[in-house]
Structures are given as C-alpha cells and as structure tokens.
Amino acid sequence: QVQLVESGGGLVQAGGSLRLSCAASGRTSSIYDMGWFRQAPGKEREFVAAITWIGGTTRYRDSVKGRFTISRDNAKNTLDLQMNSLKPEDTSVYYCASRSSILQNYNYWGQGTQVTVSS
How far is CA 74 from the centre of its chain? Predict the structure, then answer.
C-alpha cells in the first residue's frame, strides 16, 4: 500500500500563488505515476495534473496549463504542485493520488487540502 498526505493549502487572493505538497510512504517503489485532482462543492472530482514517477513526463488539464507546475522528488518521495496566477474557479479541495500502472485507475488517495481563491 501507499500512504499519501497533502499539505500547503490555504486562502489566497486571485492572482496569487500556492504550493501544494504530497508526501508518499509505504510501497513507493510500486508507483507508476502520481497526480493531483480537485473537487469543488457540488461538482465532480476532476483531473488537474500528473507526472510519471520514473521519467517525469507531465500532463495537465487545459485550464491550468501555463499556471500550474507539477514536480516530484523521487529521493524524498514527495509530489508538489506549484500554482500561480490563481483564479477563483481554482477553489477546491485538492487531492494527490497514485497508481501502479497506466492501465489502472488511481487507487491511493490523500485526505485532501483546501485551496480557496478570493476575488
């Protein structure tokens, strides 16, 4: 199993920045990639960004491209999301997740961290 713990959420004004972190523990050697997802009240959870654990290939949802940067530190088993130029519509609970294969759904999840962007 993999355990994930997020940190770094908070309240920020529109145009500001926040950096989210996710600490992974347990069977981290089994990780294929890790991602960030978010869920706003009354909405479905949506994909934000992901990165492969080996190789560091990244992908993003269109609405965050150029504003958010996902990165990982394999030695420290951490995943980060640098969020710049934040907008009120970025307000959500952000979750990190991991999976063991590209053929699998993300099956390990953190508890989530709240990001609130005020206008």
Answer: 15
Confidence tier at 85 by pLDDT (50, 70, 90): very high
State the Cα–Cα distance between residues 71 and 45, nearest whole angstrom. 21
Task: Transcribe 3-28 into DSSP letters.
Answer: EEEEE--EEEETT--EEEEEEEEESG
Q: What is the pLDDT of residues 24-44, one digit of tens each?
A: 999 999 999 999 999 999 999
In the numeric block, which tokens belong to residue 2?
């993999």
Element (H, E) at 79: strand 78-83
Q: Produce one character per residue of 23-36: b if its CB has 16 or more CB atoms within 10 Å, e if not.
A: ebeeeeeebebbbb
Residue-wise pLDDT tens digits, 63-78: 999 999 999 999 999 9
- Tokens at residue 106, please? 């993300």
Cα–Cα separations (whole angstroms), residue 64 to 60, 98, 111: 7, 20, 22
